[in-house]
């Protein structure tokens, strides 16, 4: 079951500069920064009420973020929803006709298991399911 909006992911070219911008906007520093080596990305997270903002910077030209930024300007990359059972939710959505980009959940940033839903099956928006580990 989808529980709530978990975060909005924003692709950026320069994480340090974007952190400064969001610090000014939100009046606080990110609560967490980390590198997800398997995805070739550095991230930072800002808490905004019940949801979060995740800034994502590519660490390698082959990363999904680098490829995204080759085609589009910095901006909205994905919307993430927290789920209580990622395996069950993946199966439910697969049955409902959604195209999943992962056959199994994988370890993502911020201590989450994640799975992505292809934008072609979600009105052009990349969606992420995430469950706390």
From TrEMBL:
Family indicated by similarity: Belongs to the methylmalonyl-CoA epimerase family.
SUPFAM superfamilies tied to this protein: Glyoxalase/Bleomycin resistance protein/Dihydroxybiphenyl dioxygenase (SSF54593)
Record domain VOC: where: 4-132
Protein name: Methylmalonyl-CoA epimerase
Alphabetic keyword roster: Metal-binding
Pfam families according to UniProt: Glyoxalase_4
Domain of life: Bacteria
InterPro entries: Glyas_Bleomycin-R_OHBP_Dase, MeMalonyl-CoA_epimerase, MMCE/EMCE_epimerase, VOC_core
GO aspect biological process, one term: L-methylmalonyl-CoA metabolic process
A single MF term (Gene Ontology): methylmalonyl-CoA epimerase activity
Metal-binding as UniProt keyword: yes
Gene3D superfamilies: 2,3-Dihydroxybiphenyl 1,2-Dioxygenase, domain 1
């Amino acid at each position: 079951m989808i529980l709530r909006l978990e975060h909005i992911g924003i692709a950026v070219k320069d994480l340090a500069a974007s952190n400064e911008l969001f610090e000014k906007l939100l009046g606080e520093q990110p609560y967490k920064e980390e590198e997800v080596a398997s995805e070739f990305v550095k991230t930072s997270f800002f808490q905004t009420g019940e949801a979060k903002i995740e800034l994502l910077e590519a660490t390698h030209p082959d990363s999904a973020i680098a490829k995204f930024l080759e085609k589009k300007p910095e901006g909205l990359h994905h919307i993430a929803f927290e789920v209580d059972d990622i395996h069950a939710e993946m199966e439910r959505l697969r049955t409902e006709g959604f195209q999943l980009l992962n056959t199994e959940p994988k370890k993502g940033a911020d201590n989450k298991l994640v799975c992505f839903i292809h934008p072609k099956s979600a009105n052009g928006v990349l969606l992420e399911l995430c469950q706390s580990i």
